[in-house]
Amino acid sequence: MAADDSRFDDRWRSFEAFREEFREHAVMVGVDRVYARRWMLGRGPGCPLGVQAAGYLLIALAVAGLVGGGYVLWHGAYLLGVFLLVLAFLSWRLFGQVAIPTFRSAAMADEALFRRWFEERKVSVFVKATGEYIWNDRETPA
Q: Are 108 and 19 a contacting pair, CB within 8 Å?
């Protein structure tokens, strides 16, 4: 971890100092959205059980909205069909809006988890004052 985290460790003297800047909104933590969704559904490390259940419920609503909307549109009830398709779209968007902040919270709550995800390039850091992005510059194997 030492070589991979060098840019992170050069900028902050400790993870607690980084957390303090995060709380003050001086830095932003970027998240790999696809990984965050998979993490939530797979109940990855740090994911609460209730959040995983909410994720499955939102996915079920999205699928039901798509299937129901298609079926209803096929039978000519256009207003209800559009409503169900909008429900599917909003369910999917809400799923992302739940997964990403939960993933970010888990990373900020556990230093070891944050460093692992930083090493795997699942999270990055944006420093607002300098406009600098800090991420793991290590080349990923092909």
A: yes
